[in-house]
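Next up, sample data:
>
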Amino acid sequence: MPQPHFSTPEAVLRGYFRAKDENRPHLLEDVFASGAELVIHNRSANIAFPAATYGRSAIAEVLVRSFSLSYENIYSFYLGRPAAGVQEFTCAWLVGMSERSSGNVRVGCGTYVWAFEPHAPRLANRLAITIEAMQVLPRSEFDPVFAWLGALNYPWSSAASALQGIPRGEELSAITEFLRRNVTVA
């Protein structure tokens, strides 16, 4: 008799970034339960998403297929790591990407609240994303922004690490403030 497949929260989160950042929607089979719910609280006027999406295939359309039509060079980071076996996990996130059409750079931040099934395979049955900020920078900022992002540990980083090399300037002040608020004191 085959053993049931159990996913860990860490494997689910890693799979989500692989699917989204690498434009591989099929990988969401190992991330979201078929009837999963996606809720987005968007506090930025610089990006748009539906407020609620239901079902793995609709989530794949919103977070991978449609997203990848507009953006490339996507680097996403969790600013916290889940413990094994948790049923819910909340953490801050950071993302950088470039717009396909203009080459402009976008840097965003916010929080994730993940909820996992209590039974095998323990996939995500709900993801709430809060977008705190999404800054748009000119394409001339591509090199410094992507040098900074490329120096971070992917996909698990920390607010303190992200603050160390963040390019200076007013354009990223909302991101800098968010990171400062999310530095964990050891």
Notes: The chain has one domain: 9-181. Strands lie at 32-42, 52-54, 71-78, 88-99, 105-116, 124-137. The two ends are 46 Å apart (CA to CA).
